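For concreteness, we quote verbatim a single protein encoded this way:
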Amino acid sequence: MFRPTSKELSDKLKKAEKAVFDGRVSIIDPETVAEHAIELEYDIELDLHEVLKELLSQMSRDEYAGTRPPQKSYKEEIKGLEIFPFVLYSPRLACRVYLKFALQQETFWLISLHKDRPPREE
């Protein structure tokens, strides 16, 4: 089966958006997310939830940038959960961003949010 399917991605985005709007957000690596927030020029304490809300409301399944099937997390807090990376342009941040998250029951786990980086050539 070809997964995640378009329907599955749409459902994940809806659940992610609901979790963020309900304030159920956890961060895997706060230090790294804070460093990336400085690079993206937003205040992690004041603006993170608003940035996530905006990104998720603008995001579509077509911006999925992950593997098929999705990779599973190796981070202890979310070990074994599927991870969902997306790449999209953010008018607020004035650049393309890479957002990677996992969902655990009703919690949105932020794994990564940074400027999109082009693939390395080898």
Remarks:
- The mean pLDDT is 95.
- The two ends are 31 Å apart (CA to CA).
- The CA atoms of residues 84 and 97 lie 14 Å apart.
- The longest strand covers residues 95-104.
